[in-house]
Design goal:
Elements (H helix, E strand, L loop, with lengths): L13 E6 L5 E2 L2 E2 L3 H15 L3 E6 L10 H11 L6 E6 L11 H8 L4 E5 L9 H5 L6 E3 L1 H11 L9 E5 L4 H14 L2 E4 L1 H10 L16 H5 L4 E2 L3 E5 L5 E5 L8 E5 L1 H13 L2 E5 L11 H11 L4 E4 L3 H9 L7 E2 L4 H9 L3 H4 L3
Parallel strand pairs: 1-4, 1-6, 4-5, 6-7, 8-9, 8-14, 9-10, 14-15, 15-16
Antiparallel strand pairs: 2-3, 11-12, 11-13
Helix pairs in contact: 1-2, 9-10
The structure holds 3-phosphoglyceric acid.
The site of 3-phosphoglyceric acid has 8 residues, from loops.
């Protein structure tokens, strides 16, 4: 990947920048501006060096979302002049964006002289504004994309040891390749969240009404791996709404696991203290139902850790923003699905095309 610092003369050039400002918007207001903040340095650099920037972004899945609240938030945060930065339409409103159509890619390319990808978190999509356009214009990587690649690569490129990987959330099928890969690369892989329910179930534990994935995905084999760590205790919610801490093998049929328990937290905190590298993806509990305590305690512990701390994006980042601790880790990824894909394959379609 070529850095934007390698662009010789930016004066008078029109630079098309693909950003990922796909942020939550409610009642016309941006709820979390983390991604917008992370996109500003690249745009500022280009403008300061004499370029005019044309921004390509998507908001929502189908292109119907109005990007005006994002534009307002961007100018509020960046203080850049509207003459220097122009927002194009929501790219997903164009037919051909998701199909990576040649026609649309050419249309996007006509908007400028140079293309910059600063949208790591959408680089797992071979879309026209991510891959197609990069094949037509001279293409470069923005600062955020470079940062993501540099920092996330630390976990698979000669990682420091002891290396602890904490994995939570749901969607077992998408996370299985990660578990397999990091059982080889890391020294311990702690599995929490809904993912742990599948392991506990395969281990013969009752998980009651807790969320599980029905397919097996070869879990049995992984259970034998000594590096795999599961919650020792859990917080369950009973039918009447009350909560109780239990050993993982004592859950009843009408109970739902909503978090890991205090013994598991203590154990993990010990590992956090002694590790030289910690990678985390996904919450350890059902935080929307009050199962956010363990995740918050361990995140706090991680902010004090001496080792390298990397937050691999997704829902964990929203919690970190709420807790206002986003600057207390070595790196917090802006990606969700893209981070998972990058961690498991080491590259992404939108990155490969820049080489
Ligand atoms: C994200 O929010 O993870 C990225 O913007 C990608 O969005 P998508 O899943 O709609 O492609």
């Amino acid at each position: 990947m070529q850095s934007i610092k390698k662009i010789k003369n930016l004066k008078g050039k029109k630079v098309v920048v693909r950003v990922d400002f796909n942020v939550p918007v409610k009642d016309g207001k941006v709820e979390d501006n983390f991604r917008i903040k992370k996109g500003i340095p690249t745009i500022e650099y280009l403008v300061k060096n004499g370029a005019k920037v044309i921004i390509l972004m998507h908001l929502g899945k189908d292109g119907s979302s109005d990007i005006t609240p994002v534009i307002k938030e961007f100018f509020r945060l960046s203080k850049l002049s509207k003459d220097k930065v122009e927002f194009y339409k929501n790219v997903r409103s164009f037919k051909g964006e998701e199909e990576n159509s040649k026609e649309l890619s050419k249309g996007f390319a006509k908007l400028g002289d140079i293309y910059v990808n600063d949208a790591f978190s959408v680089s797992h999509r071979a879309h026209a504004s991510v891959v197609g356009i990069a094949k037509i214009l001279p293409s470069y990587a923005g600062f955020q994309l470079e940062e993501e690649v540099k920092n996330l690569s630390m976990v698979f490129d000669k990682p420091k040891h002891p290396f602890l990987f904490i994995l939570g959330g749901a969607k077992f099928s998408t996370k299985m390749p990660l578990i397999k890969k990091y059982l080889k690369l890391a020294d311990s892989v702690f599995v929490g969240g809904a993912l742990a329910n599948d392991f506990l179930k395969a281990n013969g534990c009752e998980v009651g009404m807790s969320l599980t994935d029905t397919e097996g995905y070869g879990i049995d084999k992984l259970l034998k791996n000594k590096k795999l760590l599961l919650p020792i205790d859990v917080l369950v919610q009973k039918k009447d709404g009350t909560k109780e801490i239990k050993n993982s093998h004592q859950v009843l049929k009408d109970e739902t696991i909503i978090d890991i328990g205090p013994q598991s937290v203590e154990y993990l905190n010990g590992l956090v203290k002694s590790s030289k590298l910690i990678l985390w993806n996904g919450p350890l509990g059902k935080y929307e139902d009050g199962g956010d305590l363990a995740t918050k305690i361990i995140l706090k512990e991680m902010t004090k850790a001496r080792g390298i701390t990397i937050i691999g994006g997704g829902d964990t980042v929203a919690l970190i923003s709420d807790m206002k601790i986003e600057n207390k880790f070595t790196f917090v990824s802006t990606g969700g699905g893209a981070t998972l894909d990058f961690l498991s394959s080491g590259t992404l379609p939108g990155i490969k095309v820049l080489k």
